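To: structure subgroup
Subject: Chain for Friday's discussion

All,

I'm putting the inputs and outputs inline so they're searchable in the archive.
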Amino acid sequence: MSDNRRDAVSVLLPTLEWGPVCEELADQLGPNDEPLVLCDSERDPVAGRKTPNGVAVCIAGEPEGCSGKANALAHGMERAENDRFVWTDDDFDRTSDWLDRLVAAGERHGPATVIPEFVGEKWWRLVEPVSFVMATLTMYLRAGAWAGNAWGGGVTFTRDDVAIEELLTDLRACVSDDGALSDHLGDAHAIRSMHASVHVPGDLHTVKERMSRFSRITHAHEGEVGEFVVSVLVVGLALLFPIYAIVIATAIAGGVYALLRIGRSTFLFAYPALFVLPLIFAAGMFREEFEWTGRRYRLYDVNDIEVSNT
């Protein structure tokens, strides 16, 4: 049970199934907390399920012009009654005091976000060092393109931090709920002591679609032409001077893993990961379509999206 002295929160959890994460969060709720489990339709397994502790299952409806997750969060924000919100995901485990710690950080620092670590096996091992160096590290250090960004898998903020109606409008016209929320919050405090280890399936199709989605969203918002050119130059240097490149890439990745206290050996894939970089950026520039949780999206521009079921 939660600490009764903290702010009451509306917890928004988009998910299609009732799983261990739902149980974990239900056990952490305070007496005035409002837990909202958000699904797409009555066909989803979680719909109509008997839930503990007054957890409400809300049916958001099929998305039109936005991602299913963004649509669900918009619906949840309309339903929520408390002044403080927590957005979270169903794909990582958390400690028994996770909710209290997140809300406490929000009370101290304003909008506050957990730092995600995307881990996996098979083909994901070629992407994992890139993810840690370019995303997790920059959030941790509050530097670069990810500085101040909020991660929708674990973030807290209040009604005073955002213009709710404007946020709802943007959520219903976007693929990236993280990006929409970050645009409205402006700057979120990254909680260095709270990391979420998100397991990524390592099969080639899932890795390809996930990286296409991330890269396409980034390209739509910021452009990746410069990054693509730099990545090609890096690959050229790695081919010309392989010994130096192996040593430098592995040392940098190993240092990042050590700083972030990530006890995995995948930093050893840092050198072959260099050759994946141009493919990731090229996918963002030229591949408009990607698959995500049972739907296909065509992202032409930030707010120009087509959605279809697979």
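Points worth raising on Friday:
The first helix runs from residue 20 to 27.
Strands lie at 9-14, 34-39, 56-59, 84-88, 112-120, 154-158, 189-200, 289-292, 295-301, 304-309.

D.
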